[in-house]
Amino acid sequence: MGVPVPRGYAWCSSFSSLLRTNLFFQDGEFRNAFWFTVLFAIATVIVLNIFGLALALLVTRSLKSSNLLRTVFFMPNLIGGLILGFIWQFIFVNVFSEIGTRLEIESMQGWLSTTSTGFWGLVILTAWQMSGYIMIIYIAYLQSIPGELIEAAKIDGAGSVQRFKNILFPLLAPAFTVSMFLTLSTGFKIYDQNLSLTNGGPFDSTQMLAMDIVRTAFVDNDMAYAQGKAVIFFIIVTAIAMAQVYYNKRREVEM
Questions:
Q1: How many helices (H) and strands (E) does the chain have?
Q2: Closest Cα partner for 53 from 147, 183, 149?
Q3: What string of pLDDT tens digits covers the 255 residues of the chain?
Q4: Could you give the CA distance from residue 135 to residue 60 in angstroms, rounded to a whole number?
Q5: CA nearest 233: which of 87, 84, 37, 11?
Q6: Is residue 197 part of a domain?
Q7: Would you say 195 and 85 are in contact if contact means Cβ atoms under 8 Å apart?
Q8: Is residue 128 part of a domain?
Q9: CB contact at 8 A, 210 and 191
Q10: Is there a cis peptide before residue 170, judged by omega within 30 degrees of 0?
Q11: Terminal-to-terminal C-alpha distance of the chain
């Protein structure tokens, strides 16, 4: 009979070997996936918060169709990432190509065949899916702002830009902290949209960290190395998320 392996030994062994051999810096594919994921996370944080806040400001106005608009904007979040990926793949490959051919715009043809357009295709897909969810967070905080403050600012002659800058934006700081945490973590962890939209192509140039880890484990059949990558991935995401929350909490106090 063999000696039983203590629980956690494989995890410690794979992680220590990964750090000891410095594979993180030697693996060009993992390094490229890391930087692509970082750029994607930054872009999605900016785009999602801008669109989410804009939609929240729109539907909190006194519009007859505000409830309908909330439903329409939130509905994409209820659709699975794989399905959305295939839907937008059809749009980018067929619809964009047809429009580009008719208008003679070469950049719209083969949208997913280059790294830069594939990158923005993933950003567009994620923004379309999650903007409604981020909108709900901003709506909750916008509705908690006392109406007397807005009315007093209007009486004092403050315009819409001044009211947003001096009243709404400071009071929405907690919502921004929550939304930034969610969008940042989502940007790093995205997998199913990446799989169905580009599948990492062309030539793995749009491959994100989650996909690289899955391929290492189940395509290359190197579970120990994939586990080490996953641990590093977890540490990176946790450190960035906690640093962001700490920084934004300090800004909330200062504002």
A1: 14, 0
A2: 183
A3: 444 444 444 455 555 545 544 555 677 888 899 999 999 999 999 999 999 999 999 998 877 888 899 999 999 999 888 899 999 999 998 898 888 888 877 777 788 888 999 999 999 999 999 999 999 999 999 888 888 888 888 887 777 788 888 888 888 888 888 898 899 988 998 999 999 999 998 888 999 999 999 998 999 898 888 888 888 888 888 898 888 888 877 776 665
A4: 10
A5: 37
A6: yes
A7: yes
A8: yes
A9: yes
A10: no
A11: 66
DSSP assignment, residue 166? I
Is residue 19 a part of any domain in this protein? no
**With the CA atoms of 98, 77, 195 and 31 taken in that order, what torsion angle do they form, in degrees rounded to the nearest 10?**
110
Enumerate residues 6+ apart whose C-beta is below 8 A from 249.
Answer: 177
Residue 106 sits in a domain whose CATH number is 1.10.3720.10
What residue numbers bound the domain in which 223 lies? Answer: 26-254
Match 């909190």 to its residue by tokens: 60
Task: Provide the residue count of the chain.
Answer: 255
Residue 219 lies in a domain: yes
| Alpha-carbon torsion (58, 63, 67, 72), positive or negative | negative
As a whole number of angstroms, the distance between CA 54 and CA 15 comes to 43
pTM: 0.85
